[in-house]
Every structure is written in structure tokens, then in C-alpha cells.
Amino acid sequence: MDEAGFLATLPALAFQAVLVFARLGAAVMVLPGLGEAEVPAPVRLGFGLAVTLLMMPVLAPNLPEAPDAVGESARLIGLEVVIGLWLGGLARLVVMAMAVAGQAIALLLGLAQALVPDPELGGQGTATGRLLALAAAVLILGSGLYVIPLRALVESYGVLPVGEGFPAGAGAEAMAGAAADSLALALRLAAPFVLAAVVINVALGLLTRIAPQVQVYFIAVPGQVLAGLALLGLIMPALLGAFEEAARDAFLALPGLR
């Protein structure tokens, strides 16, 4: 291709690159591991641009030409952003189960008053919620699980081609199902602490009936915290293993990989 031909095709290539970046870049901003608040925005932006450059030669033949109307161009770009956020959000909901489980564990351990900034859930969160959220991000990056959502994102062009619309009903149903699965996973991860809290409270109730003169409150609070932290340290490897297995299964069920 000569210089004149290249310049003639440059506007179409630029529009196609914007379409690809709209989906890939929006997804990278929220994907587990890659889209964490601790990762600087320029790094996430650079990664999105790098993925776009890698995928352009593969996706360009199936991308639409630049439309003449500005409104149609905006519609196509907006649609790609929605699809990218939807796909990234489906994967993000899996990781949020760890933060929710940490919040529940803090309530059961008596640590709900010790709050720290939590970018995962917004505002102030508990220390255990922040700990498990960071552990989930490290696990996703360290085990290479982040590759599965990226592959699903690339394969999504076969399921949701550019310009053919977004199935809002099926998309909302998938998001609701992912949220329900995330909550169920959080409850499973926090189940040992629910059992421990029940046992501790029953024991304290029996102690109150047997020895009413004992100041149970001053025994219960530090004892519950110490027992809960010991239990957390004991089952942390098993908890991370259960989360890794659940996250792998959920990522493999993302649209494009089914």
C-alpha cells in the first residue's frame, strides 16, 4: 500500500481502534487483578492500549467501517463500552465475594468497629474485608487466573460482534445470577466463622446461667476476637484454596468461553 492509500484508510483504522479499545479498555478497568484500585490508572490505561494493539490485526477484518453519522459512531462506541463493563463486571463480582466474606467475618469476630478505607466496597470497610480483598487480588495475579477473563473478553467478539447490539435482558439476568453466586460464595467462605460464633455465644450463655456473678462481657469481647483471629489464621490456606477453585469455575463460565 502506497502512502496515499494508507492515508485514505487511516480514518477507518482509527475508528476501528477506538471501537476495540472501548470494549477492551472498559473491561480492563474493572477486571479482577488488573482493575484493582491499587493499580495506577496510567498502568491500566497502558495495558488496555497494549491489548488493543495486539488484537487489532485479528479483529480488524470483522469490524464495521466508520459511519458517516456522528450519532451512529457514538452509539457504536457507547455499546462497546457497555459490553466491556458488563464482561468485566461479571468477573469482578466473583472477587467481591472475598470482600463480602471479610465483612461478615468482622461482624462475627467483633471487629466491625475497626474501619479502614475500602476501595473495593466503597467508603469505610472492615480490616478483615480489606485483608481478604487484597488476598484475592494477589491470588488472581499470582496464579494466572486473570488470563481466563482476558481470553473470555477476546472470545466475546464471536458471541457479541461489534455493531449487532447488546441483549439487555440476557445481560441483566447474567449479572443477577453472578451477584447471587457471589453472595453464596461469600456465605460459604464465612461459614466456619458463623459456626464458631454460634458455639462461642452458646458457651457464654451457659456461663452466664452457671455463674451469674462473672462479668461475661469483659471475657467475651477479647476472647471472641482472639478465637476468631486464631481460626482465621488456621483456615486461611483452605479459604484461599476454596476461593481459587470457585473463581476458576466462574471465570470459565464467562460468555465466550461456554
TrEMBL record:
Q: Which InterPro entries match?
A: FliR (IPR006303), T3SS_IM_R (IPR002010)
Subcellular location field: Cell membrane; Bacterial flagellum basal body
Q: Which Pfam families match?
A: Bac_export_1 (PF01311)
Q: Which residues form the signal peptide?
A: none
Give the membrane topology.
Multi-pass membrane protein
Q: Which UniProt keywords apply?
A: Bacterial flagellum, Cell membrane, Cell projection, Cilium, Flagellum, Membrane, Transmembrane, Transmembrane helix
Q: What is its main location?
A: membrane
Task: Give the transmembrane ranges.
Answer: 6-31, 43-63, 83-111, 131-148, 185-204, 216-240
UniProt record similarity statement: Belongs to the FliR/MopE/SpaR family.
Role description:
Role in flagellar biosynthesis.
Name the NCBIfam families for this protein: fliR (TIGR01400)
Descriptive protein name: Flagellar biosynthetic protein FliR
The organism of origin for this protein: Roseomonas alba
